[in-house]
Amino acid sequence: MIIIVQLAALTYGLNIVYQEHPKLVVLYQYGNAILIKQSEYASSDEFKNIPLEEMPKIAGIPSVSYLVHNGKPILGNPLQNPKLLNSADSETRKHIENSQKNQLFLQELEAKHGKGITIALMGKYTGAYVLLSKDFKLISTFGEQPLN
Question: Which residues, given as ranges, of the chain have pLDDT below 50?
């Protein structure tokens, strides 16, 4: 009987972990991005037709750009939209300027790795800045703070 209860608890726990893991990063043109967890992805028709295996990955998580044109969302490969990436980078850098600590950290990273793309990434409980290389590889995260 104890084994059955333990197996049920383990199964429940594994299911919860699976449902909460990040499935997709959605990049918006104003500098922020959000993590979509598996449960949100599974319950949304909006992301169903995206070929995730073809999208660039941030730390192993597929990413898509999200634009609104004539009132309709357009989802696509962020690397095929340099205007969106430039806008996101510019807007994020404006926010980073508000923190001397984050600004200095970014300067140190870019002195070592070259100028990259910055985005503000928000998860369920925390937000952080992300520095990506020009070829969309994760260099670092920094400035993590809880979301209120």
Answer: 17-18
Q: Classify burial at 79, counting beta carbons within 10 Å of its beta carbon; exposed 0-12, middle 13-18, buried 19 or more.
A: middle
Domain that holds residue 120: 20-146
- Domain-embedded: residue 82: yes
Write down the pLDDT at residue 19: 53
For the chain, the domain total comes to 1
Structure tokens that stand for 57 in this block: 């990955």
pLDDT digits (tens, 9 = 90+) for 22-58: 889 999 877 789 898 888 888 888 888 888 889 999 9
Burial (Cβ within 10 Å: 0-12, 13-18, ≥19) of residue 36: buried
